[in-house]
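Hey,
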Amino acid sequence: MGVSCCSAQVLLIREFLIVFYGNEMIIGIILGNWLLLEAAGSFIFGKFSEKLKSPHIIYAIILILSGILFPLSIVVARNTKYLLNTFPGEGIGLSPTFLSSLAIMLPLGILLGGLFPLSCRLYKDISKKPLTHSIGKTYFLEGAGFGISGIIITFLFVPYFKTIHIAFILSAINIIAAWILIIHKKNKLISISTSILLILCICFGSFKTADNIHKKSIQSQWENFNIIDYKNSIYGNITVTQQKEQYTFFCDGVSFMSIPVPNLAFTHDIVNFSLGASPLHENILVLGPGLGGIINNILQFPIKQIHYAELDPMIISMAKRYKTNLTLKELSNKKVNIHHIDGRLFLRNTPDTFDAIIINLPAPSTLNLNRFYTQEFFSLVKEKLAPSGVLCFQLPGAMSYLSKEQRQLNKCILDTLKLVFSGIKIIPGHYNLYLCSPDKELKITPKLIQQTLKKYNIKSPLFTDFYIQERLNSDREQWFYESLRDTSAQLNKDLKPAGVFYSLSLWNALFTPTFQKIFQTASSWNLTKIIIVLLPIWLLALIILWQKKKKGQSVTQKLIPALVMTSGFSGMSLNLILILSLQTFYGYVYLYIGVLIGAFMIGLTSGSMLMTKQLPKIQDEIKTILKIDLIFALFCLAFPVFILGLQFIIAKNFLFPLILFTMFIISVGTGFFTGAEFPLANKIYLQNSKNKNILYSFDMLGSFLGAILVSILLIPILGIINALILIAAVKGAILTLFATTLFWSERKCPGSSGQN
């Protein structure tokens, strides 16, 4: 069960990341939806699991159905855009993303969620021990399978097998498990049927057949495109399409290079304006896609060397495979130095300074992109620029009218730039070109650009005198600044990614206008406002509990579901923030998401196992769970220190394996406290409740809320540190309610019978 759940999550997250353009917020949506479906499945099957005469048969059937659904879900996920009646390259808003992923994962998530109460029933029947012990043991075993498979999937399967191959391997494992479960029951019909399904699974999963399914599902995903290559690297998905002699390269569904005929207007603009404004052109750095025009245009200037930071070696190897005269010229030039390293990490480690730094990246709509638009990054750029050097990048613009979302995004980045650079020049247009320099006297005039291009004999059919005059029109620049004058926006920082929020806001305005209204309303909220709203809710809950206590009702036990739910919320939120922090600092989430999810589950397993063993020895369950929850709340409160500490040691250039190991340990700790509470909470709750598996549903529901709220709202609006403070406040609120009711239980309240 644990292996199935972890593998399904990791594989579907990777597939949806491709469908939805590599936006890490999808991770929270997918995890949240998965947990919601698991909660629903656990609740539904938990209602009748104790009444079943043959639970092993139902369990085996679910395993078989899950096995069938593994490859089917991958194929359907790849065709999400087709189901939504959209095309590759066409944007999809957050609400269609949420609903479509929920619908695609619905059958598999419900079935795998239903395995938990059935597992508890089966384990109870086999072990002849109390239900509380079987719940704790099942929770431990699921977590163990989850944690182990997260690491195996990441390091052994993903680098060497296609997703569809892994899905068929999982199908075989599930069907074999079902066969083992029922073979000793001597039910010939079911045994024979299962054996036939296993044979079919092996046949369909054979490499040739699976390859055909893979190719057909990819071609269906990219309808009307001629797919000539499709590969998953450890950093993302690379797809190559061909139309006649033109190749187009996509990374996670986003086009980043077209050859041999590139986007001439953009490649000429970003190179000629940036180098035309720089007095020196000896050492140039390109971050983001550089092949397919940009490097070729730079080579026309009298430069000494170009440094091109490209993290994914597969992009270069595929460019060499589908070579054109343009890319051959760029790749074979001895002045071009390609570094297979994250661009930001390269900039931090290099001893060189640069006359120009050109960033060819889309708007900061993801945490991975946003890390190239923050105050911390701009400060790093300033350190590596020559005194008269130029930084150049682009943001979404318009020729005659800027929408509110466009104004906010541009204002956010512009105000952040002003904290670092003295000289800033903006060239408005369909895309706004930003030119920045440490030099206060950054004067870019049509005459200067014309003289520089003539001096170096730079010939471009686009860059005519009229075009240069039109692009550098002072009235248009004045109009741009006037448009931003009454616009307010937050600064963009690593741990407060306002750029992501404004980019998502622009995205939603274009593709999901209804959701955008909710998004904009939420943008006016801050940590103080949220706590002010939550405080009356907490007081109301306290009053209600007091009234129940006065009537002699037990109130401490009634808070157990809320305690479990907030632990699920806190545990998932903290681990997701750790995953997204990795993306903020390094941009490696596509590779290591399975490791950090697995680490969380290893911690959860350890906590659950330890507490399950200690259950018979615990004298006062209520006070024990209160102590555990207090430590968990303090752990939540310390989490901002962990994140700030990680940011500090990363800035000091510690080795990445050490950073990843530190994150692994923190993730294990998060899971440990979440898992330690669950068996004890079940023991307390089951003393006075007939709902045997309800707490598992509350745990999953809390995790769902954590995944959704953190990814869609808390991080984009509040930032990482404030989001962590809010999580600690929520955990602390339930803890104080629980502690207060415990205090009441030890004192006879007026009008009460003194019952606990």
